[in-house]
Amino acid sequence: MTSRLVTTGFDTGTGVATLTFNRPGALNAINVPLAEAFLAAVQELAELSGLRCVVLTGEGRAFMAGGDVASMSGSPEQAREVVNALLDALNPAILILRELNAPVIAGVQGFAAGAGLSLALGADLIISDANARFMVAYDGIGTVPDCGGTWFLNRRIGAGRASQLMLLGQTLTAQEALNWGLINQVAAEGEFDETLEALVRKVARGPSQAYAAFRRLSDEAFGATLAGHLEAERQAFLSAVGTSDFQEGVAAFLAKRPAQFRGQ
Prior knowledge:
By secondary structure, this protein is α/β, with parallel strands linked by helices. The chain has 2 domains: 6-204, 2-enoyl-CoA Hydratase, Chain A, domain 1; 208-255, Lyase 2-enoyl-coa Hydratase, Chain  A, domain 2 (Orthogonal Bundle), CATH 1.10.12. It is built from 9 helices and 10 strands. The strands form 2 sheets. A 6-stranded mixed sheet has the order 1-2-3-5-7-10, with helices on both faces. Strands 4-6-8-9 form a 4-stranded mixed sheet.
């Protein structure tokens, strides 16, 4: 499960899969080969048995500094060809990650800009190091966010602040991103790896199928009527009742002990 541009690993003991963007010399800026490697890696993850949690990271000094803008230079036709090739790989990968029966955590060090910000926002939880920076960046090249950027930004921080990032070209520090609700946690200086590991360990021990159902319900809530969403919640709850995690959770609650979830 390793390629030159994306490295992946899977711990069968914990059920944790790690996917790392591996183009550090370019701050992991995503070009077509990297996008295609990302899709292939995500497709592999979707086939894993016992998957409990996925961690997205970037090698080197950045999570991902956006798209490889140099590859889009030239004629409009050439730029369109590159953008289509990128999104032909990235869009399916994003959809697969959102449909996994396992939570996704983005561990951000350095910059998460442009497509890098969009991909991080597609995770269920985002943790960053103290020196991380977050920016939309698309305004700088006169276009709009892709890779779900406008979809995820509005859900995380609301239309007003999303517009502020886009229209003012604002860069957020890690603490500002946390204050805005853009990310979930900032690790103390020098403690990123340990803090990420602790978070992943906690999430991976949880009822991963219930987490995935929660994500799907949350994704659908914005376009649903209340009546329709209430029924969707009912069906998701009834589906969870048939899992061993639900049986264990109820037994643990009644016994006043910590639950030992298995993601089944």
